[in-house]
Amino acid sequence: MKDRDKQTKKDVLILGIESSCDETAASVVKNGREVLSNVISSQIDIHTLYGGVVPEIASRKHMERINQVIRQALSEAGITLSDLTAVAVTYGPGLVGALLVGVSAAKAIAYAAGLPLVGVHHIEGHICANYIENKDLEPPFGCLVVSGGHTHLLRVADYGKYEILGKTRDDAAGEAFDKVARAIGLGYPGGPKIDKAAKEGNPEAIVFPRAKVDGSEYDFSFSGLKSAVLNYLNGAAMKGESIVTEDVAASFQKAVVDVLTDHSAAAVDEYGFKAFAIAGGVASNSALRGSIQNMCDKKGIPFYMPSPVFCTDNAAMIAVAGYYDYMAGKRSGTDLNACPALRLGEH
Ligand code: KG4
Ligand code: ZN
Asked: Which CATH superfamily is domain 2-129+314-327 in?
């Protein structure tokens, strides 16, 4: 392990592995910003049958697919294990059984091939997805991370250095999308379905609350909004009125996007960010992308967002985060374990 660690190679090739939820993914990234391969095996079809991710099924599917996904990532990149500089893997947060599959595979490869191992925080991966297509982007900048499990507004102080300004007190933004989609009969996964339905609806049709969290300007709360949508649906059902799904989707989406944009705008003003980025699965939402773009245009600062394929879970973002961790000298041992509740900045 040590020999390769010291070896000076021109190009740094990182194999990234991601298995924290329902995507089995592997990717090879060159010098932190050039994606040579990005293989994603989604389990969405199986989990759709159950209306959401079933953890035991997720782990089993990861086990069935991980070796093939890694093999494919190496072959599409046109390299073998001996060309790699290091192996980076998501070790938290996420579903413990799912994380363990990726962590075990990464440890086995690193050990067998004598490569350094770098444990990566999943949210750090999402943030780093912005570096892939935006070669000019460098810290410091403000970032809104919105995924199925997380809603964080933060200051990216430097590579690997984050200051959390606000986070959700209850549901994550993506969780709210998924729950509301289920309630209005759009099914799983909710985010993309609401995004699509909202394009045909009127965002002003129903006024849903924009929740503020007392005493914390940058924290979020989405459970009240979710309840307001459920109350609206129950009220309509009791009165025997039919609902316009597209209007509910558009009005709900507008309420989420308004809150996310207002908080981001306030942070840009207070912290004087010279650039702003979004990340995570919900960052692929078309209304959110448009609204934050608009906010940044008004403030005269550049706005960065990954292509949708790099917003939702993927391993390229893990390889990029792993690259910056590797360059900063961070290494994990063979005792690396899955940490389902890992906090940003804890590793
Ligand atoms: O980042 P991600 O793939 O996984 C987590 O780390 O959680 O995010 C998944 C979340 C899901 O809640 C999904 O509904 C949401 O991202 N999502 C969207 C869209 N695409 C995915 N939410 C709103 N609009 C979308 N277009
Ligand atoms: Zn994610």
From this structure: ATPase, nucleotide binding domain (3.30.420.40)
What whole-number distance in Å separates Cα of residue 307 and Cα of residue 317? 12
Mean pLDDT (the chain, rounded): 95
Task: Using pLDDT thresholds of 50, 70 and 90, give the confidence band for residue 2.
Answer: very low
Residue 341: Cβ-neighbour burial (10 angstroms; 0-12, 13-18, 19+): exposed
| CATH number of the structural domain 139-307 | 3.30.420.40
Q: Does 232 contact ligand 1 (Cβ within 6 A)?
A: no
Atom of ligand 1 nearest to the CA of 150: 7
Ligand 1 pocket test: which of 21, 177, 291 has the largest number of ligand atoms within 8 Å of its C-beta?
Answer: 177
- pLDDT value, residue 4: 47
- pLDDT, residue 212, reads 84
Q: What is the pLDDT of residues 208-217, one digit of tens each?
A: 999 889 889 9
Q: Give residue 312 CA to ligand 2 midpoint distance, Å.
A: 6
Between the CA of 312 and the centroid of ligand 1 the distance, in Å, is: 6
Buried b or exposed e, range 288-313, using 16+ CB within 10 angstroms: bbebbeebbeeeebebbbbeeebbbb
User: Does ligand 1 lie within 6 Å of residue 280's CB atom?
Assistant: yes
Do 2-129+314-327 and 139-307 agree at the fold level? yes
> How much is the pLDDT for 10?
85
pTM: 0.95
In the chain, where are the structural domains located? 2-129+314-327, 139-307
Query: Which residues partner with 86 through β-bridges?
Result: 14
CA of 6 to the centre of ligand 2 (A): 32
